[in-house]
Amino acid sequence: MNIENIKTPCYVCEEQLLENNLKLLDRVQKESGAKVILALKGFAMWSTFDLVSRYLQGCTSSGLHEAKLAYEEFKKFDAGKEVHTYSPAFKEEDIDEIAEISDHIVFNSPSQLMRFKDRVLEINPNISISIRVNPEFSSSPADLYNPCGLYSRLGTTLANFDESVLEHIDGLNFHALCEQNVDALEGVLEAFEERFGKYIKGLKYINFGGGHHITRKDYDVERLIEVIKAFKIRHGGVDVYLEPGEAVGWQTGYLVATVLDIVRNGMDIAILDTSAEAHMPDTLAMPYRADVRYSGEAGEKQYTYKFGGNTCLAGDIMGDYSFDVPLQIGDKVIFEDQIHYTFVKNTTFNGIKLPSLAILRKDGKLDIVKEFGYEDYRDRLS
Ligand SMILES: *Cc1c(COP(=O)(O)O)cnc(C)c1O
After folding, report:
1. Is the pTM of this model over 0.85?
2. Which of 5, 94, 161, 174 is the most exposed place for a label (fewest CB within 10 A)?
3. Which of 198, 224, 249 is the last residue of a domain?
4. CA 337 – CA 50 distance, rounded (Å)
């Protein structure tokens, strides 16, 4: 593939890298006995679901739209795949359709469960019902991504757990991690079992949520397998689910942009045809600095530039990067690892064009699977 010919901005997901991640996740399934489902929140490039559905057991969704995507675009490849739907609070107007297309429904509170359980079972007698609990174990790297932080609305704490839900549920869910290794999971499990372990007997499954950075190089996969196996043994062979999002899309591709202009104000500033705010939102929200191919830290190589987006937001800045040769207008810039939590969060802020979506096939062919234009901006407004 020739990067120079790509119309930018464009996300490029490499099929081979995605499959490598899926194979590793599948090894976890096979060796630990857990089921792994994709959290659509982090990665929802459905044109890859043919491939993803060959390895993962289903999808986890947060509400009606993600559930529909899982049902229509994932389950179509295999009716045996599962749609799990959780929402911090389900709405009356959505619940019937959600019940119809979901295999599992996860309530966030005893009040939501009691309110909707009969209706859901009437519509779909085979649906599994569970409740999300808050293990009150926090080790998340940032408050924005900490589901167990102070005043968290996500999951029911033990103090608010109503034992009368037990006769209605098949499982328990927790989600407490963010980009973490297995040692953090062990901490969560200890807290979870201390509080809720007494309720596991008789349940069909426990869902360990997401945030497991399984496909990161330093992740201790062997230990994860051991931890899951030991958990299952402690609890009479109960089924275990993992629902990673980020780990599926981790390091599977990049965002390609073009240098539109280079201006000077105290330093060289390159203006790109993309946006941190609209296209790489976690760089501002987390925040973190995305790697750029062939670049170093500011000052590390001879020519340093501040990279800015093509919106009028002053803070639409990706960071400072240095290169061995001066940048030219028209040069391509490649932001690494931009396939998770990017296009699922994109906005048309400032009317800026949404990046295209492309898949680099294993044979080297580049398929542009989606392009956006003015209509996508207009149609979201009125
Ligand atoms: C966000 C989320 C996930 C996926 O988290 P990752 O960090 O992308 O692995 C899984 N389950 C729930 C309930 C979530 O909110």
Report:
1. yes
2. 5
3. 249
4. 22
